[in-house]
Write a structure and sequence with these properties.
elongated, about 65% helix, five-stranded mixed β-sheet, about 5% strand
């Protein structure tokens, strides 16, 4: 009864926060990429080309690295348009929390499992925010939690399905691979050793990679994004997202206090137990290994914290099975709240309101001023994050790139460098570069240097829109 009450209360809080995020959703550019792609997929089926993204070469071949996720969102779009596609995320969020709760319910009382599961999710702001985004990593986290639950409960078939689902949904196949490798000692030292199922999980991982309709580009994209996460071979002038940056230590501790101190306390507790000659359960040792591995990786790339936090939630639950008092559980939860509160209050205000880098509604209002006859023509987008709004509002038009600036660097370094020169106002002939290098008919931009050059050259550029905001959002036609 108490477990159900806690779940209902905290689920209501989650629903309210998600509703707040929906209102500010226009500031999330990638949401519009996934919505536009879901719409196209629902109309055309499996997309082999995406000619709109011209300078990434997707007109010849579209390397979708999130196949299963887009199957789900396209199905949602087919059922109820944008709302149907967006509904996938809260359903997955409930699924993630439900999986963690049901896994811990086998170890500790329901009310205790509910508190240990929901409290860290609600107070760890960055993790909660990432669960609210229309992104494939939410489906990946679901399969990650399913994999951990299957390994802990020795559910062989479920583990195989979790691995297979993960690699079809998300490019980061190395996440389940690490979980499988860490599970090897757990199975080898069990009462009844069984290494065969680990072989089946590895086979499922390989099968998911090979049977993906977008193989081998799914592997290429996996390694590209691994380099981005590790900061290796990045292009000059890269403005990487916060979620892939290596945060300064002080900021990392403030943002992931629950993770840092929780993992530290778990490691200390384990060390004390070993020193005293006690034996921890194999499942506890496995969860400790997974938690520490992804916590260390999150120091380099914050995305790894998306897997470390669910593992730590399970680890906390497995720790509490040794403590029967209500006070001990409440102490853990209050500790989580105290650790995160200093970061939580400001972060909710920033993340769940319009205090973000992109003003999506304004961008789409400006793009609505493109002439009706512009279908098939090309827009030079100064920033990769502007193109999702164009893709969503005017899907018949072409543009330079999308999702991540590194993709243009990998595909065509010369074009990447020309665009950087244009943005910086360093091109001596911007009109010629735009026509000859990018075949651009329009320019959609906010950078002052390029805007100043276009204003000073009315023979080659005709203004269609220019806002009075700061920064200025402008749309120009390139005269032919």
């Amino acid at each position: 009864m108490w477990g159900l009450a806690v779940v209902l209360l905290m689920s209501t809080v989650y629903a309210g926060l998600y509703g707040s995020h929906i209102q500010a959703g226009s500031n999330d550019p990638d949401r519009y990429y996934h919505l536009a792609l879901s719409r196209l997929s629902s109309e055309q089926g499996l997309l082999r080309t995406l000619p709109q993204v011209e300078d990434l070469g997707w007109g010849q071949y579209f390397p979708d690295k999130e196949f299963l996720f887009h199957v789900l969102t396209a199905t949602g779009y087919r059922l109820n348009g944008d709302a149907g596609a967006l509904a996938v995320i809260p359903l997955l969020g409930v699924g993630i929390v439900g999986l963690l709760y049901l896994t811990l319910r086998r170890e500790i009382p329901p009310w205790k499992a509910a508190l240990v599961t929901l409290f860290p999710v609600l107070v760890t702001t960055v993790f909660l925010y990432r669960l609210m985004l229309l992104r494939p990593h939410v489906l990946a986290i679901f399969f990650f939690c399913l994999l951990l639950a299957a390994i802990l409960q020795r559910q062989r078939l479920l583990a195989v399905l979790a691995v297979f689902g993960f690699v079809l949904s998300y490019h980061a196949f190395y996440v389940p691979l690490l979980c499988i490798l860490l599970a090897w000692p757990l199975r080898r030292t069990a009462a009844r050793p069984d290494g065969l199922w680990l072989g089946w999980m590895l086979t499922a991982l390989l099968a998911g990679l090979l049977l993906n309709p977008y193989f081998p580009s799914n592997l290429e994209m996996a390694f590209t994004h691994a380099r981005i996460a590790l900061g290796a071979g990045l292009p000059p002038g890269l403005d990487a997202g916060v979620e892939v940056q290596a945060l300064p230590l002080r900021q990392f501790v403030a943002r992931y206090a629950y993770l840092v101190l929780g993992a530290g306390l778990a490691l200390g507790s384990y060390a004390v137990g070993v020193y005293r000659g006690g034996a921890q359960r194999l499942e506890y040792r496995y969860l400790l290994g997974v938690t520490l591995a992804f916590t260390l990786l999150s120091v380099q790339s914050s995305r790894a914290a998306e897997y470390a936090i669910p593992a730590l939630i399970l680890l906390t639950g497995y720790s509490l099975r040794h403590f029967d008092s209500v006070k001990s559980t409440l102490a853990v939860c209050l500790c989580c709240a105290g650790l995160q509160w200093s970061d939580t209050h400001a972060a909710y205000h920033k993340m769940l309101t319009a205090d973000l880098q992109f003003n999506g509604r304004l961008y789409m209002q400006v793009l609505d001023l493109l002439p009706p006859g512009a279908a098939g023509k090309k827009v030079f987008n100064c920033e990769w994050a502007f193109s999702p709004y164009l893709f969503y509002t005017r899907p018949q038009m072409r543009f330079v790139d999308i999702l991540d600036p590194t993709l243009l660097w990998v595909h065509d370094r010369a074009k990447y460098l020309v665009r950087q020169r244009l943005i910086a106002g360093q091109s001596t002939q911007p009109a010629d570069d735009l026509r000859q290098v990018f075949d651009a008919d329009y320019v959609f931009c906010t950078t002052d240097a390029l805007l100043a050059q276009m204003r000073a050259d009315p023979a080659n550029f005709a203004p269609l829109a220019e806002t009075r905001t700061r920064p200025v959002v402008a749309l120009y036609e390139v005269r032919r």
